[in-house]
Design brief:
Helix content is 90%, strand content 0%. With 130 residues, it is mainly α. The chain has one domain. Helix 1 packs antiparallel against helix 2, helix 1 runs antiparallel to helix 4 and helix 3 runs antiparallel to helix 4. The longest helix has 65 residues. The protein is rod-shaped.
């Protein structure tokens, strides 16, 4: 009888160890999937921001030439793009100096802030890959 109990305990321990290994493997796979998904979403976000900004920048350039502001472009600047881009755009809107040099300065600052935001996404991706 004692051999049966020892055998039963051996089977139970073997099953427990197997279950723990399986759990560890599944847990590791889930963490990897989660990181991969975050990276995929960040890459999509970057592509979308680049494309949206490309379109808005064209409208912004036209607006600078014609002294008008497209509502689509303005709402994108305020609500779709990162805060640093929105702030740079707000500074442009609030600036009373609408000379050519001022417009160019603001255009540069807004574009620079977008590049910084895109670079931040790259940094986030790199951190996830470490």
């Amino acid at each position: 009888m004692s051999e049966a109990i020892v055998g039963l305990i051996g089977v139970l321990l073997g099953g427990l160890i197997s279950a723990l290994i399986q759990y560890g493997s599944n847990s590791s796979d889930y963490r990897k999937w989660k990181v991969d998904k975050k990276i995929e979403l960040l890459k999509e976000k970057k592509i979308n921001l680049k494309n949206e900004f490309k379109e808005s920048r064209k409208l912004f350039e036209i607006g600078l030439e014609q002294d008008t502001i497209s509502i689509d472009m303005a709402t994108d600047m305020y609500y779709i793009f990162p805060n640093n881009v929105s702030k740079a755009f707000k500074i442009f809107i609030d600036d009373d100096d609408k000379s050519e040099s001022s417009k160019k300065k603001h255009y540069y600052k807004i574009t620079k802030q977008m590049k910084i935001a895109l670079s931040k996404i790259d940094e986030d991706i790199e951190k996830l890959l470490e």
